[in-house]
């Protein structure tokens, strides 16, 4: 399986320049004090459409437009942020978007699709319906993460991290289907001070660590890592971190994680809820629960931080479900 | 009653420089689209201690230190942000702080006092206990809003707004006891393109409007304006916007509002809850309900915005009560 190439990453960064927010990498002094490390936050919650997803969707559609393969529009499937991102990107390109969403999708994310002009089809058969709609209408399909252009777009987050902080000791990323962790880890390994690594790799003490974190209840990547091959989860995943509840990791994202990521951790639901509140209270940034799984891993004792080191948490999005806030209030 | 002088405001800005966060004035494009005006947010939720209050407390204690009147420490009373701000400011000056808080104070705000080393005394007799503690220990007292140095410190928010946006059409401020609205309106009138005004004043069409907003259930300033004199509310106020639940406005803050502010509006609790969510969802900034009363007034139809104009909302703080989030989740 091909990994995204450094040239694809830099091309994506040039393509997206001025079309996306150059989000800040902010230090949170309160978290720095509490955790004993310099704590930097890559604020993709402040990105257009409220998540990093717009980077991948826009990169993919811009490439198609350039190649003349944009077709009459775009069909995709997603429970959330990729749906809004694709709607936004399609509007930028001037083509229609149809998005298959599960009936239980978060209201905030459903509203966002409407805000950017996307058409929603509610269905439990996401992939099949998407394919049927694409064929019927003559649209192209856009996979939410299993697409090299989507991964390269997401990887621009990593290029920006290194531009603002050339040598982080540790970068912590939320993992759903694996698009974000694939692109960012590829960019970090291509551009950082040490270009080698991968799950189980040795690595010197000065080597940048890259850690992925996913909910134990939505652990598609850990499932694939243990099996050694991409395969769907036995049951439909569900988590407070709804943005990470992908039913499978793909062979492509699994390959990136095997090549570039040191470790993928699994966190419990109560740890996610606790960290979600802690992240918002400390940073005064509004994020979705998915953005807090890295902090959850630290607070649950699964991820130890070297005192005085520099740690980057990627805040993947800010489109929280209003109803989810009850979980925080009840704790 | 003396109003804060322009020289006191500029002196406060010089005194606080490098000791406080120069908070950003951010445009929220989504709110700009929704409201049809250029919507700018003064992000005091990102200020040290999570609210604008540190400006006033630090200005006052720095002046006392300079004058040799800091005494052995500082005693104050507050249900919230001023308590944390005074603790922080006292620590900066190297003196102890004791803070009288009501037993029902928000946990987030109680924790913040501890974080900055303040000593807490829980009591319902806030003012009397504060006075007794000050006498007993030989500490100076610091009023949360009825103090010219506290007002001048808060006014530096206005100086920074004008530095980043020299000619806003409308500035909207939350009102509790009135310290923020007093200082900021004085600074805006001193530095803006039109230096006159006040409640009921005529004003040309190009004149900057300054509007205060308070909860109807905690309407100390409207109560004082109607009475024409400072007097306590008949009953203890209570609001989701806990930061604004001052039991009275003072003669000093009333005088500033009468001199400089065009209008003080009162918003209902459900409008505050609705706007709190809307503000966080649109901006991806975590704020406390008090910071959303201005947007509540707009969404409730109490405050009309001229299409295409530039409107500044002051986000006064980000120290929300965890339990309050249940209100949002239930809507």
Walk me through the structure:
2 copies of one chain form a homodimer. The first copy, chain A, has helices at residues 6-16, 29-35, 53-67, 81-93, 107-115, 126-137, 148-164, 179-191, 220-227, 251-260, 269-283, 293-299, 325-329, and strands at 25-27, 38-43, 74-77, 97-101, 119-122, 140-142, 170-174, 209-215, 263-267, 310-315. Chain A is α/β, with parallel strands linked by helices and 331 residues long. Chain A has a 6-stranded mixed sheet with strand order 1-2-10-7-8-9, sandwiched between helices. The model of chain A is unreliable at 194-198 and 200-205 (pLDDT under 50). Chain A binds chain B through residues 45-46, 50, 108, 115, 277, 280-281, 283-287, 318-320, 322-326, 328-331, and chain B through 30, 45-46, 50, 108, 277, 280-281, 283-287, 318-320, 322-326, 328-331.
Describe the strand arrangement of the main beta sheet of chain A, using strand numbers: 1-2-10-7-8-9
Q: Characterize the largest beta sheet of chain A: strand count, sense, and whether it forms a barrel.
A: 6 strands, mixed
The helical percent of chain A reads 40-55%
Order of helices and strands of chain A: HEHEHEHEHEHEHEHEHHEHHEH
Between the first and last Cα atoms of chain A, what is the distance in angstroms?
Answer: 44 Å
Radius of gyration of chain A: 18 Å
Give the class of chain A from helix and strand content and strand pairing: alpha/beta
Q: Give the mean pLDDT of chain A.
A: 94
Identify the quaternary structure here.
homodimer
State the total count of DSSP E strands of chain A.
10
